Amino acid sequence: NAGVTQTPKFQVLKTGQSMTLQCAQDMNHNSMYWYRQDPGMGLRLIYYSASEGTTDKGEVPNGYNVSRLNKREFSLRLESAAPSQTSVYFCASTGDQYRGGNTIYFGEGSWLTVV
Amino acid sequence: AQSVTQPDIHITVSEGASLELRCNYSYGATPYLFWYVQSPGQGLQLLLKYFSGDTLVQGIKGFEAEFKRSQSSFNLRKPSVHWSDAAEYFCAVGAPNFGNEKLTFGTGTRLTIIP
């Protein structure tokens, strides 16, 4: 009963390093999301993929890239990490992005620190 | 664009006491409204949601919320809290006729339970 699985759970990067956060869901969902969570700011959408083969920018896309590898997997890449990208990252999925009332299922989060 | 406000950053209640978490939204029409809970080290889990109809919505874990259009509020309540309810609670507002990319999360209320 995995749901949404994201890796790694913890990562420390040096400024300028690159890394990829991996996410996979086993619920046959069409739509997937990457959010970041910062203290006092709630969750903010970085990128989303409404369906396999499509990706779109969210509220805070600068400094990130994404890849929808297949229906199950949606990765988030930091090409040149900056301290401002220190955050907790959540992957999420839902059946249909265009049905705004659908329940969104979240992974357990990835804690990223950039020093 | 819609917005959501959770005026209480941190609330402490005694085990067995009643609970009310406040959520106010701004939107031109009736929005979609959600409450999510985040336990320590976990992702967000949906507690309940409101689309239309009956303004009192029942959720999981004994929670309920009431939509009050006149007050632009969607407060979360529980008659008697348990120690396991200690978590962070997020209210979210979505825009009908738009997808989940328009979902806006509040900044969260941290709930502490004392014996």
Q: Care to describe what's here?
A:
The complex is a heterodimer of chains A (115) and B (115). With 115 residues, chain A is mainly beta. Chain A has strands at 4-7, 10-13, 19-25, 31-38, 42-49, 56-57, 64-68, 74-78, 87-94, 105-106, 110-114. In chain A, strands 2, 4, 5, 6, 9, 10 and 11 form a 7-stranded mixed beta sheet that branches. In chain A, a hairpin with a 5-residue loop joins strand 7 and strand 8 (74-78). Chain A is globular and about 40 Å long. Chain B has strands at residues 3-5, 10-14, 19-21, 24-26, 32-38, 44-50, 56-58, 64-68, 73-78, 87-94, 104-105, 109-114. At the A-B interface, strand 5 and strand 9 of A face strand 6 and strand 11 of B.
Name the features:
heterodimer; A: mainly beta; 7-stranded mixed sheet; 4-stranded antiparallel sheet; 11 strands; globular; B: 115 residues; mainly beta
Structural class of chain B: mainly beta
Alpha-carbon distance between the two ends of chain B: 41 Å
Unreliable runs of chain A, pLDDT <50, ≥5 residues? none
Give the helix tally of chain A: 0
Helicity level of chain A, as a percent range? under 10%
Largest interface: A-B, 28 and 26 residues
* Largest β-sheet summary of chain A: 7 strands, mixed
Quaternary structure classification: heterodimer
| Biggest sheet record of chain B | 6 strands, mixed
